[in-house]
Amino acid sequence: MQKNNLCKKTQLLIIGAGASGMLAAISARRTARSLGVADERLGIVLLERNLKPGNKIAISGGGHCNLTHDGDVKNLLEKGFLRKNEQRFLRHAIHTFSNADLLALFGRYGLKTEAREDGRVFPVSGRAGEVLDLLRRMVEESGVTLITGARVERLECAAFGFVLQAGERRFEADAVILATGGASWGSAGTTGDGNRLAASMGHAIAPVMSALAPNYFTVPPRAELVGITLRNILLVASAEGASDSRRGDVLISHRGISGPACLSLSRSVAGFHASGKPVAISVDLFPGHEAGTLSAFILDQAARHGTRQVRTFLQRTPLAPERHDAPDASSSTETIPNAFADEILRQAGIDREVTMSGLTKAQRLALVSTLKRLALGTVRKVPLDRAEVSAGGVALGEIDPKTMQSKLHPRLYCCGELLDYAGEVGGFNLQAAFSTGWLAGSHAARTLFDKPQTAHE
Ligand SMILES: Cc1cc2nc3c(=O)[nH]c(=O)nc-3n(C[C@H](O)[C@H](O)[C@H](O)COP(=O)(O)OP(=O)(O)OC[C@H]3O[C@@H](n4cnc5c(N)ncnc54)[C@H](O)[C@@H]3O)c2cc1C
Description:
The protein is an alpha+beta fold. The chain is 34% helix and 22% strand. It contains 13 helices and 18 strands. Flavin-adenine dinucleotide binds at residues 15-21, 47-50, 55-56, 59-61, 65-66, 151-152, 179-181, 185, 189-190, 193-194, 388-389, 416-418, 427-430, 433.
């Protein structure tokens, strides 16, 4: 470690001024004050590699910032984190600093929020900048020293605690919180530094991969399909011996697919792709109906409307009707998009002019099998630089979920997206970053002053 430009030794150094790092700073200061510790006795330094803190908050939710999700914590965990081990790991942090606690904290600073019908919570102003401004104000008011343009490159243990190197500057601290975020959307400052720093301290790092990302295909979708959204279908990813699926909307893009179902499935797709197996993406346009029911439905329609072209039949057929609906008497208002009617015929090998009564048995079966498994493409890439979050990172087994403290090094903490979890779209990732940051900050402050910890602030 270089010895130039030693900055004053401090008690607590937080690396990364994103959602988790800023909340860690705020909660450390509040905890210390609640313990009667004067501000000058707890020096807190927040180091940020960018020139401004909170880049990702500024771009979150398309600039509107979906800051959390409505509902009770149990529901939030189940909806937002599909893997049980991640739910278990996050449970204590999110109970300790819940969505209600977060909104109460922001509310005290005047932020008005609204919960949408689907549970996503946004500022009423619709401006991510408002959330970020409030966070910056809270950090400033808490007397934390924010140093921007300081990229931490090295972290080492020392007899008293830790030594850090950021360019020419060297920092010493009794405790360190790693809050460097994930490894996706690198232009925001998140290029996986935290994983390298944690690995240098002996932590196991789960393979980093995209989550909440679009899928790019080896052969781009046909031009006439681009821009179409297939609503409420079942999106399926299949690789040799493995598959996964999601129900929801899929948008066909110039390079492949995007949209909610694609984003949610992308973590599995990235995992299959990383194993080197070809990953085929298909959609089930009738996820609520078995092949036999569909076949009977087509036969019935052929008996009633024999002279109708199969293409017209498809264009009038509801898309993804619910299980309890007959395919033709659906509560769904969407029908199969015209361009997809042609695509279905193409993949089923049926001529555009064929009428319902002219369908042979083999054609009917081919049509059913295409409706149940319409091929969209083969995955070329699940781009990390376009992923809203990255999965992988610091292994959860080496972090105490009750405190966010490393099990390998006392007084070293990891929080936020740096950890090996990834939430769904809906405000879950910011909530997890806020909650784990809050927990790390409050426990670090208690540890530094050797006071027993209580669960809730
Ligand atoms: C386009 C986009 C939209 C999103 N929308 C939403 C949304 O609406 N709702 C939601 O819940 N989630 C959303 N997310 C995800 C969410 O933003 C992140 O999960 C969350 O910000 C993670 O918080 P964090 O504190 O762990 O990391 P970050 O917020 O990424 O903060 C980490 C900070 O550490 C800094 N840093 C990194 N390395 C170093 C270093 N070596 N030295 C010093 N500083 C360093 C980074 O510059 C960064 O400022 C979105 C993400 C993206 C990319």
